[in-house]
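DM from R.C. (forwarded with permission)

"hey, sorry to bug you on a friday — could you get me a structure for this? deadline for the figure draft is monday and I only need the backbone to look sensible"
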Amino acid sequence: MPDPSDARGGGSAAPPGLGRDADFRRLWTGQTVSQLGEHACLVALPLIAVLALHADAGRLGLLRAVGQAPLLLLSLFVGAWVDRWRTRTVMALADAGRAVVLGAAALAGLLGALGLPVLLVVAFTVGALSVFFDVAYQTSLVRLVRRDQLLRGNSALEGSRSAAQMGGPALGGALVSLLSAPVAVACGALFFALSFLSVRRIRRREAVPGRRGRPPRMRRRIREGVRFVVRDPALRAVGLASAAFQFSFAALMTVYLLFLPRELQLPGTAVGLALAATGPGALLGSLLAARLPGRFGHGPVLVSAAALGDVVMLWVPALHGPAAVTVPALVAVNLLFGACGQVVNVTTMSVRQALTPDAMQARVAATITFVGMGTAPLGSLLGGLLVERWGLRTGLLLTAVGLLLSPALMALSPLARLGRTLPARPRPDATGG
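My reply, with the result:
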């Protein structure tokens, strides 16, 4: 019996390519603008705390942890919930909510009330709504395109995310440094409003597999998603490798955002430029991810890209000297880190989608997000503690070494043995949902 997902797009005739699919373009545009706003806020809010409120390492770690806490608290619930709703609706509501929250924060800034307590509330609320949006857009692609278009679709979406990574940090850093905190926050609200307008124009009617029959209890649906990931060796490895990476990366970024302005004496615009270099690197990585797995195999590409990207971060703690020396070096490091990281992101997402039945896409995505990104708040707190105990350079070195655990876990798992074609999707009766 053919996989119904292979016929998505309607009719027996071959559907148009992704570039000519108006609904995919609307999803792509909305996701790009939303990611631009999110990445601008990820840099703007911590920089506001550091530069305007003079937050120390502990408070910065707390701010980042609060913003990441929804990944730990809400991911499993969101996955079970999104599987039974139209993803367009979820994404549009998440965009609207983030625009309203950031607009209110900008108003608070104009009134002189944008202190650390307000930043904590804003970071948590935006983080919570981002969980809904991210789980929904990953599920939306599976409902929108055919299975043989997943790698190209993910490459396009992750390529747009890389463009946001390129423009978002530079924009956030420049707005905070050159203009004001309220303007930086207001720009984030504008991006989410534009994403809302694009996503709500998606016209294709979604088939929502989880809506058939009487819905099981939320706890049972969450348990089914977790059990599916735990029982599949490849998905289990994705979750464990993601957890190791995200924990270490969150710790590293807490130190990194202090290391650049305080140890290397870089202004906010230079910090934004250095961080933005991951963007063009990720754009290159998206292009490579659409080609390399089919030539060398998904497993070898995953392990090699993860190892190379993480090893290069070991050079950062050794940097010294004026901005004319350190900024080009940081740009080169982040360019390679972004390219390798994007190859890993696109490839693992395609593997995960290929291994998961349609009715469980959101739950599996949310379970892996919970296992992976759920460790980020603890990593952010650890980064602050490392700085207070051992200083910026040693803390940065320790967190960079921690990144290497992720490719090691991949190399020891079934992921390393994946070939040039995506693995087969399991039978619908194996889902439990």
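R.C.: lifesaver. Confidence is low (pLDDT under 50) at residues 1-16, 428-433.
me: no worries. The CA atoms of residues 252 and 398 lie 8 Å apart.
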